[in-house]
Design goal:
With about 425 residues, the chain is an alpha+beta fold. Helix content is about 40%, strand content about 20%. The chain is built from 17 helices and 17 strands. Strands 1-5-6-12-11-10-7-9-8 form a nine-stranded mixed β-sheet, with helices on both faces. A hairpin with a 5-residue loop joins β3 and β4. The longest helix is centred in the first third of the chain and has 20 residues. Bound molecules: adenosine monophosphate. The site of adenosine monophosphate (AMP) has 16 residues, from β6, β11 and α13.
């Protein structure tokens, strides 16, 4: 027998095994994302992990396009593992869901694949939830996405977090009026996303923008603060004369006012120079941060032109994508245990092999009542089985022996208090529920 070479016994770089407690934590957060989707009326759809390369590549920024897992399937199709949900959802909205009345609220959760450089909080396979609201260009739709996100943070038990908020329309409004070409604008936004403010300004200058514009942008880049409404007003003042940019600042003010009124108290930092990498954003954009972690826990915004790009009619859209792995890191960082309910775990121990049949029958009976049961399957003595039950954190042991079974009874042992009672079978499930 040849043994597998050592390097193949490790996971592929950037890929992880989630061990039982990690898997449980991730599923807990996933469940919370699903509960929130229901609270806000977002319907879950499940789209494939493998899509046409061209669909996924269509509207990704250059950097993300290069990071896709691309391959040819056996039929010679060029396919890729999804690096985001949005392209698949846009495909649905532009095709199968074209004639469904708006608004359309959709939810997805699952794993995504990006050939990123692995580091803290960054993996090549990671988990995301995705909420998207189609059909409304109104500020209440944007405010709903912010509220839903704040609601999710609260429900998973994250105490300390903040939203960083900006508006692509303010920056693009200025650049459009200056006649800066779209691809140049994209480059500028990309530099801003990478926090290279000076290079971004340099790029604007190279595009032939007026000195007025340069001054406007330089002062705009300084506008930042924690009073959402007055900061968005300030943005409007700085871009006076650029009508689209002024309207965008007014839109941001409305969104943030509505969000404030929804009463989900959230620390909001408005930052005028904030941009997000993907090219399809058109309006409000935001990211979620937790203190002590300088990676975003999630991000979102408005993208009114996306569906058009996938061949549909124009459908306004706003959405958010929280990263589950990072939410987990933030919770751990804030020392928050997950409120995963600690259920009962019952071990059934037959005292010898003649009692196996009875033990199996009792197991089935309890499971039918919805109680989680493990059967002693190693042929161990009662003493050894009990020691093992202790080690594994079983809450109860049911010992099945011939003496008690004669009267249709068993021994119920409470692992924590190390006490035991003789209990009639027909009272067992009731006793276990106490
Ligand atoms: P994006 O789809 O790029 O807007 O990212 C939204 C969220 O997904 C981020 O804020 C992260 O929480 C999460 N995310 C993105 N890329 C990764 C990655 N490589 N590893 C872990 N989480 C990620």
């Amino acid at each position: 027998v040849s043994t597998l070479a050592k390097e193949f016994r490790r996971t592929v770089r950037g890929m992880r095994d989630l061990m039982a407690n990690e898997a449980e934590s991730l599923r807990f957060i996933e469940q919370k994302t699903r509960e929130v989707s229901k609270l806000y009326g977002y319907e879950e759809v499940i789209t494939p992990l493998v899509e046409h390369y061209e669909l996924l590549a269509a509207k990704l920024g250059e950097d993300n396009r290069k990071r896709m897992y691309v391959f040819e399937d056996l039929g010679g199709r060029k396919v890729a593992l999804r690096p985001e949900f949005t392209a698949s959802i846009a495909r649905l909205v532009a095709t199968k869901m074209q004639s469904i009345p708006r608004p359309l609220r959709l939810f997805s959760v699952g794993s995504l694949y990006r050939y990123d450089e692995p580091q803290f909080g960054r993996f090549r396979e990671f988990w995301q939830a995705n909420y998207e609201l189609f059909g409304s260009d109104k500020p209440e739709a944007d405010a709903e996405i912010l509220a839903l996100t704040a609601n999710l943070m609260r429900d998973i038990g994250l105490r300390d977090y903040s939203f960083k908020v900006g508006h692509v329309g303010v920056l693009r409004g200025v650049l459009n009026q200056e006649g800066v070409a779209e691809d140049q604008q994209n480059r500028i936004m990309d530099l801003l996303d990478k926090k290279q403010w000076d290079s971004a300004l340099e790029e604007v200058r190279k595009s032939g923008a007026s000195t007025d514009c340069m001054e406007t942008l330089s002062s705009l880049f300084e506008v930042k603060g924690r009073e959402p409404v007055s900061i968005s007003e300030r943005m409007g003042e700085v871009v006076k004369g650029y009508s689209k940019a002024e309207a965008a600042a007014a839109n941001l003010r409305e969104i943030l006012t509505l969000f404030e009124e929804s009463g989900l108290e959230t620390d909001v930092v408005v930052e005028a120079r904030f941009a997000r990498g993907l090219e399809y954003y058109t309006g409000m954009i935001f990211e979620i941060y937790a203190p002590g972690l300088d990676i975003a826990l999630g991000g979102g915004g408005r993208y009114d032109k996306l569906i058009e790009m996938f061949g549909g009619e124009q459908v306004p859209a706003v959405g958010v994508a929280p990263g589950l792995d990072r939410l987990l890191l933030a919770l751990q960082n804030q020392g928050r245990g997950l409120q995963v309910s600690k259920e009962q775990r019952i071990l059934i121990i037959p005292v010898d092999s003649t009692m196996l049949g009875k033990a199996l029958k009792i197991s089935s009976m309890l499971r039918q009542e919805g109680l989680p049961v493990e059967l002693e399957t190693m042929g161990r003595s009662v003493k050894k089985a009990l020691a093992d039950a202790d080690r594994r954190g079983n809450t109860h042991a049911v010992i099945v022996g011939p003496k008690e079974m004669k009267d249709n009874k068993i021994v119920l042992r409470h692992m924590k208090s190390r006490t035991q009672d003789i209990v009639a079978l027909n009272e067992l499930s009731e006793k276990l529920r106490q």
